Amino acid sequence: MLELIKELCTLSGISGREDSVRDYIIDKIKDFAEYSVDPLGNLLVFKKGKKPAKNKVMLDAHMDEVGMIVTAVTSEGFLKFAKVGGINSKVILGRSVKVGKKAVNGVIGIKPIHLVDKDKEDTIPSADELYIDIGAADKEEALSVVSPGDAVWFNSDFVEFGNGFVKAKALDDRVGCAVLIEMIRSELEYDAWFSFSVQEEIGTRGAQTAAFNIAPDYAIVVETTTAADISGVKDENRVCICGKGGAVSFMDRSTIYNKALFDRAFEIAKENNIVCQPKTVVAGGNDAGAIHKSRGGVKVLTVSVPCRYLHSPTCVIKYSDAEESFKLIKAMAEEFASC
To answer: What is 67-154's CATH topology?
Structure first.
């Protein structure tokens, strides 16, 4: 699964521009399951198990990543842009990026410290004040390789470091995609339905239509979530911790999860010697927010891989958490399908 994560994270796929990610996933699962693509771009997959499922279980992971989109080109050949998804301006200053179909190299420019007024040295500029430098001499040269509406994504290498840690862009949520690919390619006890959703980062839009089409009884959202296990953060504010398995949510800003399912997840983990942990801060949101309100309502649970520095070019996970999450999600899917 590590190689899947690596290959997925190197692909570009900001919200609304997930094509290359979807094509990659199709290539990996086409010999193992039936699939279709809905008008919004969600990849919907049916995997036949050894037995028919008593309950229809949907497993969801989103394909899109945060990034930017080109809005204009200045007379000097610099690109103006808007952020796509929740990105703090602090994490994009001076970053290397790729732009458009030709994957043009660029750098997000900022006024050098020598020219900044003293009273503004500690001020973080807004995205409106920034620009992307692609080395063009003027507007005409820039427009020969890029245009407004082009996607912009972080140019960040996949790196393994420390004791089992991984750094890359787009770990949110290519880790979840890798978990679902691994499930589809494995032998399942019961029939299962999968959604590789689009546009999660701009409002869980893809999951809304995917859930309507699949009409599940239960759904398991496979995500990443903030691991604040870093210096200066109190224990009660750390959300979850890298190395302690997948984080199971009881509540976030878009969903209050079914308490019986939440409790059962930890019972299943204990019965199968799987490492997991609760997500201990009510923060963020994910596709569960759209799925649980679909049609007549869906019983939903989210299992997230802890991720440091979320929505940045340098997301960090511990690979063992992805492995433990895979085991828990597969066991939970079997339970929900048969109960």
So the answer is: Elongation Factor Tu (Ef-tu); domain 3 (2.40.30)
